[in-house]
Amino acid sequence: MFRLKRFFKKHILREKDSPVYSPSIEELRTAFKTRYWSFKTLLKANNEILEIMADMERVLRSGRSFGMSFIRANCTALSVNLFKIIQNLNIIGDNHYKELYSVSEGIWAEINGEVEKKTVIQGKEIVLPIDKITSRMADQAGSKMANLGELRNRPGFHVPDGFVITAWAYEKFIEHNRIQQEINRRIQTLDADNMERLHRSSSEIQTLIMQGNFPEELQDEIMAAYQKLEARTHKGVTVSMRSSAVGEDSRNVSFAGQYRSELNVSRDFILYTYKEIIASKYTLQAISYRLNRGFRDEDIPMCVGCMEMVDAVSGGVMYSRDPRDFHSETVLIHSAPGLAKSVVEGSVSPDIFTMSRKVPGKIIGKSIQPKEIMVTLSSGDGVTTVQLAPEQKNSPSISDNQAVSLSEIAIGLEDHFGGPQDIEWAIDLEGSIKILQTRPLQKSEKHVSSGTVPDNIGNDIIINTGITASGGTACGQAFLVHTALDMLQFPKGAILIVKYPSPQWASVLPHSVAVIADTGSITGHLATVAREFRVPALFNTGDASQKIKTGDLLTLDADNTRIYSGEVKQLLQHKVEHAGLMSGSPVYTLLESILKLVTPLHLTDPESVEFKPRNCKTVHDITRFCHEMSVREMFDFGKDHAFAERSSKRLLTDIPMQWWILNLEDGLKGDSGGESVRLEDIVSEPMLAIWKGINAFKWAGPPPVDSRGFMSMVFEATMNRELEPSMQTRYADRNYFMISRNFCNLSSRLGFHFSIIEAYTDDYPKNNYISFNFKGGAADHARKIRRVEFIGRVLRQYGFRTEINEDTVLARLEDCDRDSIKEHLKVLGYLVIHTRQLDMIMNNEALVSEYFERFIKDINSFVHIPF
């Protein structure tokens, strides 16, 4: 390539400065060959960019999950291919387009600014006392602790004393250990569907964090904050340490149970536990959740709340509204003896109290569940599970008066935060109710209930009990999960069967069609995430994991708490599809911003004085400009250098129009060096296919024109100077085919309309494509628009993807075998000839319908496209 560039500088570029110099035919042949290969490279890169843009737009519209790896990979591919286009245009055009490099750099500076934009952490404090935190400090303390700090400072709510280790502290720890680059390397290429790789990267990143050392300042301030808490409470106070990541517990995004919390942590284990919790940002379920919800890893620093441990007599979760109906006037309270941990993790079936919001103190419903165990504080660090005494097993875990007090608190929290709340609570040894967490309640999406189903439906009922954790119906093969290894082997489209609905199973929810658990309740973490993902879930079935085996085909009717063997088609008409969770997420919004710099096309008219490099505002503009200029440069080369051997030749044909051939490489059987060529000499597959369409039916002449159509044509011709013979471009009187054996570009101007067909065919469908551009006409603007709509309608009839912009129709077809490409090219050949002057009759609906039917009938008689 270096030698070729040197040749251009020495000989071809020299011609511009020295009129005496005339290159030899061998030099011209070498130069032309270089240009042709650059032209092919440009076309390939242009096609790659069109594919990438289409894929990015398709993913944005589809609602399916994507992450930063998708954005970074596609931006890199766009950048590489755009550079190839600009580079090769400058080779073809003797470096006349160097301005495009700076224009491209400006666009990429904007795109990179969006991609690399990082959340700026406000405040430089390493530790904040809970009394100093408000709800406006979520970027420093995380939403969970910001909400609790807000309540700590409000009368009527009791929140344990404590402090938060801030987002700034997290940044300092990661920076001190220099592990962000290693984290990025593993995160940036992750795919939410590759569970094995997710697991491996998760393990590696957590190990990196656990092996990290504390900066001295960070260690000193955390321990100083603990000593102050100890002074305010009692010596040797143990703490609960809870994740409070930025973005966690916010509206529409719960992160429920995705990060780690540790209870009853003593002074000696605070620093170690801190590392465990920030490492839990990279658990399998947390990474999977972020990828599927569209969050960037770099936007979520991990804060950690440290609060005085509550030795709970009972605990649980309450909802200030029913998540299935926010208009309901009820408060739902789920409770269990001991710590709330057993309720949120789904290891027990809790007592359920349904409280009236309209009538204070009224208990609408009460369901006391048999209980075998409770979770309580161990004598050392951590918690332990103990067996309940016989008299406790069937006793309520809270009193009616406590249920009333809890419901009043729930209503008060909803009023304070301005929306339904999901609240974790505990009752201490003195009977005081402590608020441990409050976040916006995730609402279940509305769907059509399956209603009452007859018992004699024909399928066996395997389970006829349970609690609807997330409504809906689903059918699939069962897959029992007991361990993390089982989770890695979970097949997409299966029904997840578990004994306990642990939050760790959340990583397979995007791949599952339903969840069934032996225990659990509507208030557990997994239930919350299932509702977010709109995955039907039935909990507290008792023994589903024993009755169902892996591979069993099941139909779940979660609303009616039934599990059927086999497929029940009557129910599946109410099946709820997974939610499109990406819309509005940070990654989704980022892709939207990037596409604004990539896909819009402003340079639509090559004949406009604005068609210049400096007016390229997007990647698409640059590709459009380069494609147009490359075609012009290829045609100009033969003319400017009097290059007869490879310049355009007249096609000898009976069709009374000028058709010119520029053989790029191997489009002719042989080249005699004459000024004309016959059809039988042409071996270009795409050109011959187009020609068959051109020659299939003789043009019947202009359609009958009404007086308005005629006058509109006259007016357009007098007002549009580009239609005057003296103002026509150098391409106006000729129709040019640029050809090789597998490639063809037809630039055609017939009458007042201009069209371009570009096509490539070979044995690999992925390489094959057709691009079609039609513009212009002699009638008024409205009729021209109706004509392109007419053409678009015909093209869609044959499977083309079309886009109409003013009086221009763009059409594309790709990923087809070569025979299909050739058949579709016949359609375009026909349209190039037979759409002339059709704009004249576009106000006559009867004639429009008649011509449409005629076109379809004609095309179908010689084109064979399977549908």
Textual characterization of the structure:
The chain is an alpha+beta fold and 867 residues long. The chain is built from 24 helices and 30 strands. The strands form 5 sheets. Strands 24-22-23-25-26-27-28-30-29 form a 9-stranded mixed β-sheet, with helices on one face. An 8-stranded mixed β-sheet has the order 14-21-20-16-17-18-19-15. The chain has a 6-stranded antiparallel β-sheet with strand order 9-8-7-6-12-13. The longest helix has 38 residues, at 25-62. The radius of gyration is 35 Å and the shape is elongated.
Shape: elongated
Mean pLDDT: 82
End-to-end Cα distance, whole Å, is 46 Å
Low-confidence stretches: 1-18, 642-646, 707-732
> Helix tally?
24
Largest sheet: 9 strands, mixed
What are the key terms here?
867 residues; 9-stranded mixed β-sheet; alpha+beta; 8-stranded mixed β-sheet
Fold topology:
Layout: H1 2-17, H2 25-62, H3 68-92, H4 99-115, E1 127-129, H5 138-152, E2 162-165, H6 167-177, H7 180-187, H8 195-210, H9 216-232, E3 239-243, E4 261-265, H10 270-279, H11 284-293, E5 304-308, E6 314-319, E7 330-337, H12 341-344, E8 351-356, E9 363-367, E10 373-377, E11 383-387, H13 400-417, E12 421-427, E13 433-440, E14 461-463, E15 467-470, E16 473-480, H14 484-488, E17 494-498, E18 512-517, H15 525-532, E19 537-539, H16 544-547, E20 553-557, E21 562-565, H17 569-572, H18 586-596, H19 619-640, E22 649-652, E23 659-663, E24 676-678, H20 685-696, H21 707-719, E25 735-739, E26 743-750, E27 753-760, E28 769-776, H22 781-797, E29 801-805, E30 808-814, H23 818-834, H24 845-862
Parallel strand pairs: 16-17, 17-18, 18-19, 22-24, 23-25
Antiparallel strand pairs: 1-2, 2-5, 3-4, 3-5, 6-7, 6-12, 7-8, 8-9, 10-11, 12-13, 14-21, 15-19, 16-20, 20-21, 22-23, 25-26, 26-27, 27-28, 28-30, 29-30
